[in-house]
Amino acid sequence: VAGPEGKPASITVGTITTGEPGTKVIVENVGTSSDVILNFTIPKGDKGDQGEQGIQGEKGDKGDQGESYTNDGTVDLNIKSLQLGDIQTIDISDVPDGRIFIDRKNNQLVIKQNNQWVPLNNMSNFELETTYKNNTGTFPINFAPVKLVGSAGAVSGTTGLTAGYLSPDTTKGLPTPTTMLIRVDFKISSTDTTDSDYYILGYEGSFNIRINPGKKTVSFYNAQTKSYSIDYSKLTINLHDDKFHTAYFILNNGYKGYPCFAIDGVYFNRELPTGNLYLTNLRVRGDKNNTVIANALTIKNLGISSKLPSLLNFQMVPTDFTEFEGYYTLINNALENKQLEQGILLKPYSNLDSLNTIIPIYMNDSSNNMAAFNEDGLYRGTGLMTTALALDTFTFECYFKYNSIYDNTATSSRRSIIGKFGLFSIGIAANSNSKLTYKDYAADTETTLIDDIQKDRWHTLAISCKNNIASIFVDGVKKVTVAFN
User: Fold this and answer.
1) Cβ(210)–Cβ(221) below 8 Å
2) I need a surface site. Which of 17, 264, 350, 472 has the fewest CB within 10 A?
3) Which of 390, 485, 472, 484 is nearest to 129 (CA)?
4) Cα Rg, the chain, nearest whole Å
5) Are 153 and 137 a contacting pair, CB within 8 Å?
6) How far does CA 209 lie from the centroid of its chain?
7) Class of residue 424 by CB neighbours under 10 A (exposed 0-12, middle 13-18, buried 19+)
8) What is the rounded CA–CA span in Å between residue 282 and residue 261?
9) Phi and psi at residue 450, in whole multiples of 5°?
10) 166-168 and 148-150 as β-strands: parallel, antiparallel, unpaired?
11) What is the pLDDT of residues 372-423, one digit of tens each?
């Protein structure tokens, strides 16, 4: 059930000052990530050569002194996708759609859409598209909470969280992606031998991992019901050395659709289905129904990632969080996501934040339409979204990779990545082994996205749609804008 609608993002203009000639244009956000206030410093132009003396005109009456200005709109100052100009001095019909300008009268930024100035109070798809463009393709794209909040009595000190618990700062019931890694570094006090199951991380009212220092067990719980326990001393792990250790909570549909768990790279998973999990219910170090003794358990470095580790047992655990979409140190109240500057795509305004599952189509073994999976993902057949949707505004994203061994396989059929039968398709064009296109079956048109797609590497494909107008991105670069049914 969706929660109440969150506060819309805002973007306003702060100050506009003139810099020295030859310096760079500076745009500085002096607000927050959700309430943006932009200060502009624009260099003064160099003085030009004196022109020829003009003909003396008739002397007119002296008018009132006009307001000073930095740019009268006759010069384009391009800052990434932002073009500075004052709408009071510009003919809107001369401006391409999607350009952003300053409305000095109302002290805000506006964007031209459908031949009118639209205030950028609610960033909506503009924010989705610009953050996606900023991504270099190096990092996975997914959503991660901007920050965490502590419970009553939570203590985040020099070593990490030592009392209370943390949860994402969101009022929305965001479904957790079906493929996701949650990682924490934790430390048990060597003097603590309490016979009690301490909650490390998991979902309140659902699946979680707990540690018992007295019995030296690690347990998997479904809400308050213990499903199974493992003697971690038999896993060759010493958790009583006053050092930090690493716990993995992995949601992985590729692993038979079951979750996986590991401590210091040693797995203790069982085949138990997860059901629906929501980020709103994510808890770190305890939940509302479980009290953890202060200083008995310390947690730092919470990481959230859509890139999963190997499922090999006794694997090396990386020490950094460079490939995590969400990273929170948890030290001295450092509860904000430190990866936001990497261009992570957030989805704060969509009316559907994700689908819980995709259903594979299973037919007889001789059918090429039978869904088949390997360690990379779905490599044959088809999967269907579980919900019938009629949305005109949404963001969709997936990874795809073309295997070059099929270059010599002649086919007159289209090789589709994503689509809806009879309406549209994004994929490799028929009779081609390299051209990525968008095909509109209703209009009988086909638009080229990439002429020669690079083989044997992962690419990202994203559709950002607003009011039935969709922008299609490949590897973070917008390739085309199309009408979208």
Assistant:
1) yes
2) 17
3) 472
4) 27
5) no
6) 26
7) buried
8) 16
9) -140, 130
10) antiparallel
11) 777 677 887 887 776 666 677 777 788 888 888 888 776 788 889 998 878 8
Tokens 């006090």 belong to residue:
189
Three-state DSSP state, 185: strand
Compute φ and ψ for 88, nearest 5 degrees: -75, -15
131: phi then psi, degrees, rounded to nearest 5: -70, -35
Residue 328: partners with Cβ closer than 8 Å, 6 or more residues away: 147, 148, 166, 301, 302, 303, 334, 335, 336, 337, 338
Q: Which tokens belong to 21?
A: 């000639």
What does the pLDDT average to over 426-433? 91
- The pLDDT tens digits for 89-140 are 888 888 877 777 777 777 677 777 778 887 765 444 344 444 444 444 444 4
Q: Which amino acid is at 477?
A: V
Predicted pLDDT of residue 52? 63
Neighbours of 362 (CB within 10 A): 12
Taking the C-alpha atoms of residue 241 and residue 26, their distance in angstroms, rounded to an integer, is: 51
Token digits of residue 63: 């008018």
Per-residue 3-state assignment (H helix, E strand, C coil) for 113-144: ECCEEEECCCCHHHHHHHHHHHCCCCCCCCCC
Q: Which residues contact 134 (CB under 8 A, 6 or more apart)?
A: 343, 476
Of 309, 302, 210, which Cα lies nearest the Cα of 250? Answer: 309
Residues ≥6 apart with Cβ < 8 Å to 285: 161, 164, 165, 166, 186, 199, 200, 201, 292, 297, 299
Record the tokens describing residue 476, joined without a space. Answer: 């973070």
